[in-house]
């Protein structure tokens, strides 16, 4: 099962910059258990609309069955890793 974490962000978004080191920690801890996809909402508005992203940062955890979890705002490492594990990683 493929588990993806989509990080919807923008370069001008302050909280998004706060989220980045947390995501790096998650990636360091879980390694290849999931795939991190960064989505710049300014460049990929169609993808943001598809996932109905209205606030930044938004993190979406999905697997082959679809969206498993969604976080809006800066999200802590423990919550992200739990959602990734729940998704099947």
Automatic annotation (TrEMBL):
Disulfide bonds: 13-16
Gene Ontology molecular-function annotations: protein-disulfide reductase activity
Species of provenance: Halorubrum alkaliphilum
Domain Thioredoxin: 1-89
Residues carrying the site annotation Deprotonates C-terminal active site Cys: 7
Site (Contributes to redox potential value): 14-15
Assigned GO CC terms: cytoplasm
CDD domains, per the entry: TRX_family
Protein name: Thioredoxin 1
Keyword annotations of the record: Disulfide bond, Electron transport, Redox-active center, Transport
tRNA-binding among keywords: no
NCBIfam families, A to Z: thioredoxin
Taxonomic classification: Archaea, Methanobacteriati, Methanobacteriota, Stenosarchaea group, Halobacteria
